[in-house]
Amino acid sequence: MNYEVQIAAELNVKPSQVNATIQLLDEGGTVPFISRYRKEATGELDEVQVAAIRDRVLQLRELAKRKEAVLKSIEEQGKLTTELKEKVEGAETMSKLEDIYLPYKPKRRTKATIAREKGLEPLAEMIFGQNSINLDTEAEKFIDSEKEVNSIEDALQGARDIMAEWINENAELREKMRKLFLEEGIFSSKVLPGKEQEAIKYKDYFDWSEPIKTAPSHRVLAMRRGEKELFLMLDSVPEEASAIFLMEKMILSDAANSSVEQVKLAIKDCYRRLLKPSMETEVRLLTKRKADEEAIKVFTENLKQLLLGAPLGQKSVMAIDPGFRTGCKLVCLGPQGQFLHYEAIYPHEPQRRATEAGMTVKGLVEKFEIQAIAIGNGTAGRETETFVKSLGLPKSVIVTMVNESGASIYSASDVAREEFPDLDLTVRGAVSIGRRLMDPLAELVKIDPKSIGVGQYQHDVDQNALKNALDDTVMSAVNGVGVEVNTASKQLLTYVSGLGPTLAQNIVDFRNENGPFNSRAQLKKVPRLGDKAFEQAAGFLRISQAKHPLDSSAVHPERYALVEQMAKDLNASVSDLMSSEELRKRIILKNYVSESVGIPTLQDILEELAKPGRDPRESFEVFAFEESVNSIGDLKTGMKLPGVVTNITAFGAFVDVGVHQDGLVHLSHLADRFVKDPNEIVSVNQKVQVTVMEVDIPRKRIGLSMKSDPFAERGKKMEKKPASKPQRQEPEGTMADKLAALKKQFGR
């Protein structure tokens, strides 16, 4: 089935672009490959657009499969008409399709089926016509003790059960009711009786309500989590009167008789017993899916920024996993991240062997020609940084803090055991800290993204959707940077376009058995790495010391002949083109346009010739926290401090200011102007200047601001309104303990 017209309209692109993309995807093309090396075919669609087409095609194909199953089911019942078939085939969404199918869907015995078994359907039809009849007389005809219809009321009740089911199965009504729930529905949460103390972290939701259509994703997920943990009762419905009015308006005639009154009773029963639970379930699924999408978007954006953090590069590094009682685990790594040496030092309480520790550090710096020292930012991190900086090391030695979130997860993983089977967990953690400094991307791909410390509510969202989004994000980052095939780990190679775990392992095994690859072409000798995998992967793999100069670039091997022709036309070599800007300026791109190669690809090639294998990540910059601030007790309101953004959420950004507890810059304090999306202002790992707004030591809360004059607004508010009038606090679920005090202080 062709979906290009529908998807093109939804994504505001051309049908031809969608058609070409679908074809490339069906042929086994990956998102990075298609967006990078098939620009002419897709009309230069980027990764986001290609991924959106891929996902939408999957949705529409799933819808088509469901339509086939529905049509088959109805046909087997002998109830399929031309009109019904057209309705099924025309259903644009799964919910509309299921509404159409509902009357024909095989179901368990219901009140309505029992009533039909008692022969009451003719009575229901008579009443549902809403004509003036003698109800008692007509109902009395259906009294049958053998069928357990013992009274007029029994007969009328059965008829109402059947009518309630008819009303519930009205597709048009269900569509309008769904809209009512979404537009006028209210999320209402209350604490379960007796759970007040146990559920204290959800205190802002003990008696909370807000419109479904405006509830932000983090609050939806927070309320659902509170409900799941059996602390909260959560409803998501509109006012019953509005729902009943809508139903009566659609179902009732203008007549005033006893039949209409029976239909009214059936409507109320239908809503309370059938339609309300069904709609609430649907709406909760819809709002959950929307909340998941927003939370996953926040997570993936944070992860990408973290993965693309500036690398120090290939330098000899000392890495320290700091600690007090158990000491600091210290490792020395070579320029390729290879483990060279391990030592434990005890510069802090209770041992206080600072002199001995200092001599050890200085000796190892000299012995291994250490160029940088990476210190984990966990417990004792700032104290260890102060200690190392006091040793009088050469100024050329960089000393910097490294975010160690997830290092302990890595150290206990199968990946770490495979890499360092003979090392203790804590030593592996130190190695991870050092390698993160050298190349964040290469090291972080070894850790489950959910353990890296970015995002919000990652354990509450749809795990399959989260995994797919995270895999896309990691793959995008890895292929965007490129991978040195002779030094990359199996985990890094796994994310290269067209490879995966098996081929990644085969490449590592081949490398170990035969030595470093000397050309991209040699990759074809790797077991099971066929032509398709080579096509998808080759452009993203780099071989820095290869015989062919383009093997270290992002120029795809399928275009080597084209570049060689460019060089030949200028009486030069490919190496000459790569080293001479003057020669490159003489290349007339239009001369090399063909059916398969257009200006976009030619421009990419020219850019790559100028900077072969260029790393798109920013250059590494040394960052240092305020030396006089080492713990939360050192913070004072009004202090201006340097910090690093560690996490971004829908309601603000968390910033590490070097006190072992991240502070929150609320959305309202990210800039002097109104900010809707925090990503407009900040990114993970960004260095920022913040002002301390509030410090709550007992509860470990730190309120920060990035405004130029953060206290000006507070002063105005104090002048305008009395401080005694309480402001209702907006909850943030499990983040409420951090946000409540801040929002109260900010007067929000």
UniProtKB/TrEMBL annotation:
SMART domains with a match to the protein in the record? S1, YqgFc
Question: Where are the residues of the annotated region Disordered?
Answer: 706-736
Taxonomically, the superkingdom here is: Bacteria
Q: Which taxonomic lineage does the organism of this UniProt entry have?
A: Bacteria, Pseudomonadati, Bacteroidota, Cytophagia, Cytophagales
GO molecular function terms noted in the UniProt entry: mRNA binding; structural constituent of ribosome
Biased composition (Basic and acidic residues) is annotated at 710-731
Q: Which organism is it from?
A: Algoriphagus iocasae
Which InterPro entries does UniProt cross-reference here? HHH_9, NA-bd_OB-fold, Ribos_protein_bS1-like, RNaseH-like_sf, RuvA_2-like, S1_domain, S1_Tex, Tex-like_central_region
- One Pfam entry for this protein is Tex_central_region
GO BP of this protein: nucleobase-containing compound metabolic process; translation
* CDD domains in UniProt: S1_Tex
Alphabetically ordered keywords of this record? Coiled coil
Coiled-coil annotated residue ranges, if any: 156-183
Q: Indicate whether 4Fe-4S appears among the record's keywords.
A: no
Gene Ontology terms: cellular component: cytoplasm
Its protein name is S1 motif domain-containing protein
Positions of the S1 motif domain: 638-707
